[in-house]
Write a structure and sequence with these properties.
With 234 residues, the protein is of the alpha+beta class. The chain contains six helices and 15 strands. The chain has helices at 3-9, 15-23, 115-122, 142-150, 187-193, 225-233; strands at residues 27-29, 32-33, 47-49, 52-54, 62-67, 96-97, 106-112, 130-137, 153-154, 157-158, 163-170, 173-180, 199-207, 210-211, 220-222. Strands 5, 6, 7, 8, 11, 12, 13, 14 and 15 form a nine-stranded mixed sheet that branches. Strand 1 (27-29) and strand 2 (32-33) form a beta hairpin. It binds uracil. The site of uracil has 8 residues, from helix 5.
Length: 234
Amino acid sequence: MRINKYLAECGLSSRRKCEAFVLEGRVKINGKPVTQLSTEVGNNDVVTVDGNKVQPIKKHIYLIMNKPKGYVCTASDEFNRKTVLDLIKDRSERIFPVGRLDYDTEGLLILTTDGDLANRLTHPRNEIPKTYIAKVEGEIDEAALEKLRNGVILDGVKTKKCRIKLIEFKEGHSRFEVVISEGRNRQVRRMFESINKEVVFLKRVAIGDLKLSGLNRGEYRDLYPEEVNYLKLV
Ligand code: URA
């Protein structure tokens, strides 16, 4: 990579302005001053500006995927099941899913190379609301729904208050919009199980204001810069 491009990728300034650093004799490669703009930087070269080591800022990858059911969210699975990473064909970087959707659940999944963002989003202190569509056999009366909204005990710990709204009752099934601000293991399924109701379909449709739309099952795209900024600030 040309020296001015390298310096720009270190976040110092624009490529043009970085040329000035070189011409002013402020740049060294492996301890030797560089003044030629045509100088190339190799992979193992150490570059300094005014004696300070500089390194290119790593560009992270941020993807949004519509996870299909039948995939796990781990890098490798003890039962050899397909993983969401098997769906990513055009990237060679070490990408990992942010949090998990269980094997049978589909919908919005973020994948990234940015460990800091992943940790922040999945930290228990982060209460970003996650919206799910849950389909359940039969009807559920208001009293039972209220119980779920106020919190039920899972593994000895009460779930936080959540929002649950009936969307429709059709062909013997109820569809609910469920908004939770935690990420406990199989939480939505287990909440309904606690009132003896089985979730037969579960899809995450939003994380905060980030919505799943325009992606078929198994498809993914890069997040737009404004979406990445949003996730970094929530
Ligand atoms: N709740 C579940 O039951 N499963 C998920 O994958 C996410 C939330």
